[in-house]
Amino acid sequence: MRFDLVVNLLTMHAVCRGAVSIFGGSQWRPLVHVEDIARALMLAMEEPLPEGAPVLNVGDTMENYQLIDLKDELVARIPQVAVTVQPEVTDRRTYRVSFDRIERLWGFRASRRVGDGIEEIAGAIRNGAIPEPEHRRYVNA
Question: pTM for this one?
Answer without folding.
Answer: 0.91
